[in-house]
Amino acid sequence: MFLENAITGKNQFWRYLVSTIVIFIGLIIGQLPLGVLLVFEQMQGTDISGFEKNMDFSLIGIDPNLGLALIILSFIGGFFALIIAVKFIHNKNFKDVITSHSKIQWNKVFWAFGLWMALSIFAEIGFYYNDTANYTYQFNLELFIPLVLVSLLLMPFQTSFEEIFIRGYLMQGIGMISVFRIIPLIITSLIFGGLHIMNPEIESFGLGVMMAFYVGFGLVMGIITIMDDGLELPLGIHAANNIYASVFVTYAGGALQTSAIFKVEKLDQNLMVIGWAVISVIFIFWAAKKYGWQNWSKLLGRIDFK
C-alpha cells in the first residue's frame, strides 16, 4: 500500500524538517538565474512592475520560451533537492515515494497523460464554439517549436516535483502520524492550494474560485493516488494539464503566458472550474473501470503500518 511505504527508511521529525529546508534551498538555487535576469533588467532601467503582476515576459523584452524555462528551473532545483533529501536524509528508495509497486508503471503515466490531454481538448472545443470571439489565434511557428520542446522536456520536472513532494513525500509523512487516510488527503490538498496562493490567477479571478480549483485539483489527485496506490496517474494528469495550458491555450491573467496556439482574452473562471470537474469525474470513472478500483471505503479507512 502506498501510504504504508512511509515506514521504510528513517523518519524522525528532524529529518523532515531538514529535508524541507534542503528542498527550499534547491528551489531558491533554481530560481537564481531568473532573479539575476530581473535584477539586470532593473539595472538597465526596465520597469518590471507589469511583469510582476502577470508573469508576461514579453513586457520586459524577454523571449517567452526563455522565460518559461527560467520559471521551471526553480522546480528542477527542487526536484533534485527532493531526491537528495529522500535518498540521503531519509535513507529511502526514491521509488517508494512514487509507487507501491516494485517499479514505476510508466504505462499508467502515459495512459493518464493521453486521456487527460484528450478530455481537455474535447472540452476546449466546446468552450470555443460557445464563445468563438473570445479566442485569439496566435500561432507562430518560430516561437511554437521551442515552446513545445521546453514544455515537453522541462515541464514534467515542475509537475513531477509538485506531485512527488506533496502527494508522495508529504502525504506519506503526514500519514505516519495519522490514523485514517482521509487526514493526509485533506491536509496535502490544502497545502497544494496554499502553494498556489501567490499565482497571478488569484488576483485576476478571485481567491474563492481559484482556491476551490487548486484545492479541488489536489483532492482529486490525492483520491487517485490512494485508490491506485501510486503517483503514476497523477504524474501523467498533472503533466498533461500544464503542457496543455502552455502549448494549446493560454489566457490573460494566468501564470503561464506563452506563445500557445490560442489565447483566451477573458476567462470564465466558473465555466473553467465546471469543465475541470466534469473532466475529473470522467477520468476517475474511466480509471476505476480500467484498473478495478472497487474498495472506495479505503479513502476513509485506517492506515495500517503493521
Textual characterization of the structure:
This protein is an all-alpha fold and 306 residues long. It has one domain (3-299). The chain is 67% helix and 3% strand. It is built from 10 helices and 3 strands, in the order ααααβαααααββα. It has a 3-stranded mixed sheet with strand order 1-3-2. The relative contact order is 0.15.
The helix-and-strand class reads mainly alpha
Integer count of domains: 1
Number of strands: 3
Number of helices: 10
The residue fraction in helices comes out at 55-70%
Mean pLDDT: 93
Radius of gyration over alpha carbons? 20 Å
H and E order? HHHHEHHHHHEEH
Major sheet size, sense and barrel closure: 3 strands, mixed
The N- to C-terminal Cα distance equals 11 Å
Strand content: under 5%
Can you tell me the residue ranges where pLDDT is under 50 for at least 5 consecutive residues?
Answer: none
Side by side, the strands of the main sheet go: 1-3-2
Overall morphology: globular
